[in-house]
Amino acid sequence: MESRKVKWRWPVDLTSYDRSPALSRREKEQIAYLVTRHVGSGAGPWPENCKTVLLRLMQPLCDVLNRASKDTHVRYAAIRALVGEMYRRGRPYWSWNEEEWLATVGPTNNHFLRQHNCKVVTHRQPIFAIAYLLGGFKDFDGFPPHGVEIATLADTVFAVEVMRIAVDTTFGVLHEWGYNQSMREKIRTALSYLLLTNRSPNLDDLNLDLLMSLNSKRQTTYGLPHLYAISRALQYLTSKSFRGPSPVAGQKYLCSRDWTRMESPPSG
Fold first, then answer.
1. From CA 264, how far away is CA 258, in angstroms rounded?
2. Of 53, 130, 163, 205, which is most buried, counting CB atoms within 10 Å of its CB?
3. Is the model's pLDDT at 237 over the cut of 60?
4. What pLDDT, in 10s, does the model give residues 135-147?
5. Does the pLDDT at position 265 exceed 80?
6. CA dihedral 235, 239, 242, 248 (to 10 degrees)
7. Are 126 and 65 in contact (CB under 8 A)?
8. 2 in helix, strand or coil?
9. How confident is the model at residue 245 (pLDDT cuts 50, 70, 90)?
10. For residue range 166-179, what is the model confidence (pLDDT) as tens digits?
11. For residue 137, what are the contacts with CB-CB under 8 A and spacing of at least 6?
12. Dihedral angle, C-alpha 61, 62, 68, 73, nearest 10 °
């Protein structure tokens, strides 16, 4: 494949943060103060002492949130939600496991509302970005169909223009093979799932081992039927010598457990 590497680097430098897995006594005190006393519309700004003590926990959150949302109120709501979770768990988010991050993001909007006792979900997607970038979250299978915006996460992590190029490159091949333009968003979602799972926006970094590993997984939320078509498009981009019928000719084959082998769909 002609090199399609994009100029991209991980949005945050995890090595620059203090990721101690336990809260200090002072951190616990300030978190408890924020949750139990600094509440309501009249609470005002955080005290300077609170900002200083919690700096090592707040700076990483702000770095991600500045990328994930331009809305100050959304960013503040996300921080308040995560402070509440640290208070309940007695541990910083650096030590949360996949199950805890899934509970924090919420499998669905309704789960999120109940988890954080709130009335809006506008800060859910930014928290999803925090889970991915700071918590290493990758349990996308924990969400039901349409439970979370996987393509929006990819745009946040990899940048909108980078994702547009990846989708245009892949779908351009499929469109030539007969895929209708209406299928573009489904391909975008499936490709977002692939790239986020691989933790890289570069099509060159995708390989058959990854696709084979997905074949054994239970999830179908993010378009596993379309991953066969994507694999054929990537094969074509790699070899420029595609042979056999296009994926659209074998739609009924797309759910087969053999799709990752990149075999030609049955013609009959």
1. 10
2. 130
3. yes
4. 999 999 889 878 8
5. no
6. 20
7. yes
8. coil
9. very low
10. 999 999 999 999 99
11. 98, 101, 102, 105, 128, 131
12. 110
What six digits make up the tokens of 226? Answer: 């379309």
Angle, alpha carbons 124-129-134 (nearest 5°): 125
Q: What is the CA radius of gyration of the chain?
A: 21
Give the pTM: 0.86
CA 25/CA 16 separation, integer angstroms: 23
**Block residue for tokens 């945050």:** 12
Token pair 């989708």 in the structure block, residue: 167
The dihedrals phi and psi of 71, each to the nearest 5 degrees, come to -90, 115
- Enter the tokens of residue 255: 């759910």
CA atoms within 13 A on the CB side of 109: 7
pLDDT, position 137: 97
Give, in order, the Cα–Cα distances in Å from 89 to each of 25, 97, 101, 159: 14, 12, 12, 32
* Structure tokens, 168: 């245009």
Q: 104-149, pLDDT tens digit by residue? A: 999 999 999 999 999 999 999 999 999 999 999 999 988 987 889 9
> Could you please report the per-residue DSSP string of 37-61?
TS-STT--SPPHHHHHHTHHHHHHH
Of the candidates 39, 74, 222, which has an alpha carbon nearest to the alpha carbon of residue 148? 222
Q: What is the dihedral of CA 226, 232, 234, 239, to 10 degrees?
A: 180
Q: Pinpoint the alpha helices (H) of 90-123.
A: 98-105, 109-116
DSSP count for the chain of H helices, then E strands:
12, 0
